[in-house]
What does this fold into?
Amino acid sequence: MASLKKITLFITLLFLIPALAMAEKNRIAVMDLRADGIAKDKALRISELIRTEIVNTGVYTVIERNQMDMVFKEQGIQQTGVINDAYAIKMGELLSAQKILIGTVMQLGDAIIISGRIVDIEKGIAEFAVNQSAANENELLEATKLFCRKLTGTTSQTAEISGTKRKKTSQETTAVAEKKSAENRKSTDKAAKTDAAGKADGAGKTDVAVKTSKKAANIKPSVVPSKKVYAQYEQIDLSFSHFPGNDHDWISIAKPDEGENYYQTYSYTGSQIKEGTLSLGGLDAGQYEIRYYYDWENGKYDYHVMGTISVSDK
It folds into this structure.
């Protein structure tokens, strides 16, 4: 009898745990992207790709397109490429969504640019905004995946390997963290030995160690772009160093007049990652700020401007 109860409990938990995990996710409605200089049916296919890729990230519960169509039909509403935040909020309320994704897909020559933002229905503000470009249709699928990973904060850390870039595996990320931890332990041991030697040899050496420690503590986070001027929609490569390695440290690029909760493109730097490189999507022509956010998920909305870049249309 006891064995039967255990089996029953196990089966219950097997079905209950995924359900609870699903309940914790915010519901997001992905509206059809507005077509700009591109065929409408192509924009609709890209919109559907985005829905699928957001499902694959596991961050949100994505409302099915047919469910959206049913609600809109009942209300006598047609999807025509929503780009206004206020109208998007009304659509989100009708769909009982916590978030809504709106945006545009445009074509300039061979390049296809996907631009989108996530609007929080309750707060009534755009939380994230991302642009991602594909050089041509052959690169569109990968560009769509990268767009969704950036928009949902699941972009992988990149590493420089023999002059080319690739994503770090979870094993490599763990190895980096362990290496850093070992280096920190060695540094701590060395400082302790230096301190002990200083006490034995006199206050002079101790003063040197204290000055060195203070100098190291004053080193501030740094973000350096690969160049100061980029071509329109060109990938932007950044190098960062002396980061604290929090779970939610991240870098964004925004226009100087945009508020702290609005970004053109962004990427998390990664847990326990204090230095490295990352790539962000191409942008429209203009002037931009590189911003560093410290442990954003813990309520720190303040940001630091790390430098500026220009994007030229010539």
Notes: The chain has a mean pLDDT of 75. The two ends are 78 Å apart (CA to CA).
